[in-house]
Design goal:
The protein is mainly alpha-helical. The protein has 39 helices and seven strands. The protein has a three-stranded antiparallel β-sheet.
Length: 708
């Protein structure tokens, strides 16, 4: 066998010899050719005429890239760094290995708390630059300038390049594969042909060159356009130019809303160092919390308590400190902060979140309703603060909340008439994406009401009030749709949607939504952890989430994250004792609904091993905890009992348990009545029950181990 690497570099005589070896002497050949690189005619003839099998190797996906990075580094890789490695290498194994090596050698990739994390830019090493393409080294001055302009602003609009007198050079680069077409808000545009091309060009810029290009671009970019203000602030900071502390603080909040907490931390720290005071500290603390650095955030917040006391941002300040205390497992400190007269003004929304997570549901509902009535949440200006409010909230029991209506056709009236309003489980879109319709919301809807509305949706779903949960979710989703897109605020609605779907009898869709929410969390690891735990709570396979929850627990100080990970691993291993211990941990910090679910899992695990006495004790414990929370049942129990059914059978049995007739189920799921009857029959046969009544009784999740 003849093996030829990089056969596209063969000269004409060598390539002709290789072709002759195959066609005349039947020699076996294994050759590689770089995609997008012209190859000699004789080399192309190997697969076109000589019959050699051509295999086009696709780039590695994100999971495969992460697996390779873990093997190269010998330890897990933090999620944001995983994404950066995949995006920067574009799935090229050779580029990935050189990126990892360069990052470690230059101290840009560091091992922290058992995980590798990128803490600085990784300028491509010389050997990596050699691997990219020698065409970059051969660029003219004009082409290099055009390439740098695109790399700094990608995707760069053709209009912008024309204004900068770089259009012709950019087109030439595109024809050679160094740039590629990409749409922009201003029309057609260009991006770098490979992410590492951009890295290489940016790294090669001298400081004076970078400043000159930044200045040119700043004169042309509209600072009010999406993303431009953040870009301009970052450039000014990089160039050592003076930046207003207010712009640094606003830039930090914008970076956090764009799921770039590391940039938010850099801008927030610069604002604090420049004497930005309270506003700068609040921005920095929010960014630190997003990556689970609660202790560091708390240190900064304590330093500005005097400035916050009695000021206009006291509610945001209080929210962050209460959230820190809760995340660090100190609920007593959280309650003490709320009780302080000098800090507790306009604190009803924050109190609702804290009470709900602690299982004090009557107090939670009372505070949530007061916040809605008084609209006191307007002081929570930061999008991160609004998203964190949802992170604090656990399900609570809530009386029905009636939205005031500006026109006819309320959600409740529609459901009474036998028509189910659109729900988070209904394809193809949600109200948030489709905009307002006949189902009305508040007469004066404001996005500030998204947190309490979605809190109520989650509360009602757990209390068993499915219709009320759907109404509150619809309201929150529509209010979110009336504000500019914000991935952090979207977390509030996504979390409620998972619980509503599970309550409506579609745990499969609920699990998918939870995983989507986890993937969308980016580097906000506590949000990601909550969504992965939510996946477990609605019956997801613990094998799918245990490993990542363990990574999150190792990367953050939050005791809640430790309990999430321990619950997932205990469920994965069917370890009843571990699950009972997790239930105790939840109970100690006041998360009683979580404690009830972990105790229910322990009861079922004990029953599976034949330990009936231990199972009954944990069953009684779960029932006591669930009753104390006002929970209408535990979705986790129902999904565990029906784990032997198909996804459709699980969905239909949950709807049977909700009291829907076969005809109603058929209408809701767009199935025939006969198909529904068939699924019900198969489900009763598999579960060993005689009829619909027994099926509903089996799924009565207030009884934990019955039927197991």
């Amino acid at each position: 066998m003849v093996v030829v690497d990089d056969a596209h570099w063969l000269d004409p005589a060598s390539s002709a010899l290789l072709l002759a070896l195959v066609t005349r002497h039947h020699v076996r050949v294994l050759a590689t050719v770089r995609a997008g690189t012209p190859a000699p005619d004789a080399v192309r003839a190997l697969w076109k005429d000589a019959g050699l099998l051509r295999l086009d190797l696709e780039p590695l996906g994100q999971d495969a890239t992460t697996d390779m990075a873990v093997r190269l580094l010998g330890a897990p890789v933090e999620r944001g760094t995983q994404r950066w490695l995949w995006q920067t290498s574009a799935g090229n194994p050779l580029f990935l290995s050189e990126l990892v090596r360069s990052g470690v050698e230059r101290g840009a990739l560091v091992l922290e708390r058992g995980h590798w994390r990128r803490v600085a830019a990784v300028p491509p090493a010389e050997r990596l630059l050699d691997l990219l393409d020698e065409r970059i080294d051969a660029l003219t001055a004009a082409e290099r300038r055009a390439f740098a302009l695109v790399a700094l602003t990608e995707p760069a609009s053709l209009e912008l390049l024309a204004r900068l007198d770089a259009f012709d050079s950019a087109r030439s680069l595109e024809s050679r594969g160094l740039l590629a077409g990409a749409p922009t808000a201003a029309g057609a545009g260009l991006r770098v042909g490979h992410p590492l091309y951009g890295e290489a060009v940016r790294a090669s810029l001298r400081a004076t060159e970078a400043r000159a290009l930044h200045r040119e671009l700043a004169e042309q970019l509209d600072p009010a356009a999406a993303g431009n203000r953040l870009r301009l602030v970052s450039w000014a900071l990089e160039d050592g130019q003076p930046v207003e502390t207010s712009e640094l603080s606003e830039g930090a909040e914008a970076a956090l809303a764009a799921f770039d907490p590391e940039l938010a931390i850099r801008l927030g720290r610069a604002a604090v160092d420049a004497g930005g005071g309270l506003d700068a500290t609040l921005s920095l603390a929010s960014a630190l919390r997003a990556v689970g650095r609660f202790g560091e955030a708390e240190q900064h917040l304590r330093a500005v308590e005097a400035a916050a006391r009695g000021g206009p941002r006291i509610t945001t300040y209080l929210f962050l400190r209460v959230g820190n205390a809760w995340a660090l497992g100190d609920s007593a400190q959280a309650r003490a902060l709320l009780a302080r007269r000098d800090l507790a003004r306009d604190s009803e929304a924050i109190a609702a979140a804290l009470y709900s997570y602690e299982g004090r549901h009557r107090e939670a509902v009372s505070s949530a309703r007061k916040a809605l009535a008084a609209d006191t949440t307007d002081r929570l200006r930061s999008p991160r603060s609004q998203a964190d409010m949802a992170s604090l909230c656990s399900a609570s029991r809530a009386p029905r909340w009636s939205c005031s209506t500006a026109r006819s056709g309320s959600p409740r009236a529609s459901s009474r008439n036998g028509r189910w309003p659109r729900s988070p489980c209904s394809p193809p879109s949600t109200p948030a994406s489709s905009g307002p319709s006949a189902a009305t919301v508040s007469t004066n809807p404001t996005p500030r009401l998204v947190p309490p509305a979605t809190t109520l949706a989650a509360a009602r779903a757990t209390a068993g009030d499915v219709e009320g949960a759907r109404e509150a979710w619809e309201t929150g989703a529509r209010l979110l749709g009336e504000r500019p897109p914000n991935p952090l605020a979207r977390t509030l609605v996504d979390r409620a949607a998972v619980l509503v779907c599970a309550g409506e009898g579609d745990p499969v869709r609920a699990r998918a939504l939870a995983l989507d929410g986890a993937r969308a969390a980016g580097e906000a690891i506590m949000v990601e952890g909550e969504m992965l735990h939510l996946h477990l709570r609605v019956g997801g396979d613990p094998k799918h989430v245990a490993s990542r929850l363990e990574q999150i627990a190792a990367a953050t100080q939050a005791p809640m994250a430790q309990l999430w990970a321990r619950q997932a691993t205990g469920a994965r291993d069917h370890d009843a004792a571990a699950l009972a211990a997790v239930a105790s941990g939840y109970e100690q910090i006041g998360a009683r609904i979580y404690a009830a679910e972990a105790a229910a899992q322990a009861a079922i695990a004990h029953a599976g091993t034949g330990n009936r006495d231990a199972a009954r004790r944990q069953e009684a414990r779960a029932a006591r905890l669930a009753a104390g929370c006002g929970a209408g049942g535990l979705t986790l129990v129902a999904t565990m009992r029906t784990s032997g059914l198909t996804a459709r059978e699980q969905q239909i049995t949950r709807l049977v348990a909700l009291g829907l007739s076969n005809a109603q189920i058929a209408e809701r799921l767009s199935l025939s009545v006969r198909t529904v009857e068939s699924h019900v029959y198969r489900a009763t046969t598999k579960l060993g029950v005689r009829d619909r009544t027994a099926l509903a009784a089996l799924l009565d999740t207030r009884r934990v181990t019955a039927g197991t």
